[in-house]
Amino acid sequence: MRLSDAMGLLVAPIRTSAGRAGLLHAGLTLLASLAILGTVYVVTTVYERRAAQDGIATEARSLVMTEAEGGLAALARQINSHVASDPAGSTVYLLLDRDRRVLAGNVAPGAPTTGWQTLVLDRGEHAGDTALGLGVALPGGALLLIGRPQGQLEELEETIMRAILIAGAVAVLLSILGGVLLGRSVQRRAAGMNAALAAVAEGDLARRLPARARGDEFDALAGAVNATLARLQAALARLNQVTGDIAHDLRTPLARMRQRLERAARGAATGQVPREVVDRAVGDIDEVLRVFAALLRIAQIESGERRASFAEVDLSAALADVVDALAPTAEDAGRSFPVAITPGLRLRGDRELLQQAFVNLIENAFRHTPAQAEVRVTLAREGDAIVGSVTDRGVGIPPADRERVLRPFVRLDESRSTPGTGLGLALVRAVADLHGAELTLANHAPGLSVRLRFPVQGRSRSGGIT
């Protein structure tokens, strides 16, 4: 293997987020392990040294009291007794008079001083070892030295150090293994997401990113992407449906217009073109233009462009203007048209679009109810919302069709024998979504009740209501 290839294998994991995450995990695990082991080492050695110092100091105080009660002779006898009972020399004793002559003990004088010091033992089982000693000045210039060999403490430190090295090596291996496993787990999940997105790009819009029930960051990301894909799939389905509906709804007026233009062409050959044929052709063209105008208006609303022109709107006054404009139509048909509008209800929105939505609802009620049937319009404050409703006494809409009729070009009159384009309620729904309102269709027993609920506390998801 060439050096460049080997370096490539070493650097490759660092180039991926999963590899970097694995290396970071390994490094942090190693550092944590070393910190714990180092703390254990320091705490253990410090504790043992402090325990040895406490034992030496306690015995020194006992011997000093012996000297105070019986003098140097009594102290020398006490030390010789301790030495005789401890042939292994686990404790070091030395008693010097003021001329630094040895009175008792089991260690060579050397150059002892007062305070804590390190001694090198020259006899007994611990010859050559170091000892921790404490020198105490006695009255009259005598010096007492007590010490304990540090061989056991040094062996303990060496044992702990070996354990730390072994544990450190194990920690390194485990941290590397954990890092590799973590990196592979991240890589597998990223690969699954990439495969799902690749399938979507190839046209499989029903494909979704894999998500687990535990709900970590990857699952939250997958959920957000899946929700976006679901909306995209629904939008494309609506687009396909609208495309088919446009072809279906425009085919009839265009076919009529072609027939009339053919008739006009035949009349032009004889010099006689009936005015009625031309007028009806113009009417067909106007109907097609109205359909396209409605589609463009709905597309503009759904894009959110009109949100930039939102302002404070007196919805009560705007609806009152709509009612005043449509009241003559209701009167000509002899229908009851009761209205109950609470004055002064205001919200942020587009006045023109709000009025158009209510116009569509009221005209739909007029169109789909008998001439004498009642149509009621209300607007009131209900808790934290403004609710506008249009109710009628017609045949209503079956519950199974209430969601479907809100889509463009959907008409319950499949024969298209009644006037209309099937875009009125679709525009109302677009206006409601733009303003963050809730649009509901409910049974009025008999008839239909359409409600628009505008929240007025806080902001809606579209930011339109205050």
From TrEMBL:
SMART domains attached to this UniProt entry: HAMP, HATPase_c, HisKA
Protein origin, superkingdom: Bacteria
Keywords linked to the UniProt accession: Kinase, Membrane, Phosphoprotein, Transferase, Transmembrane, Transmembrane helix, Two-component regulatory system
Family matches, as Gene3D superfamilies: 1.10.287.130, 6.10.340.10, Histidine kinase-like ATPase, C-terminal domain (3.30.565.10)
Limits of the Histidine kinase domain: 245-458
GO MF annotations in UniProt: kinase activity
Primary localization: membrane
Catalysed transformations (reactions): ATP + protein L-histidine = ADP + protein N-phospho-L-histidine
Cell membrane listed as a keyword: no
InterPro entries (alphabetical): HAMP_dom, HATPase_C_sf, HATPase_dom, His_kinase_dom, HisK_dim/P_dom, HisK_dim/P_sf, Sig_transdc_His_kin-like_C, TCS_sensor_his_kinase
Record's protein name: histidine kinase
Organism, as annotated: Paeniroseomonas aquatica
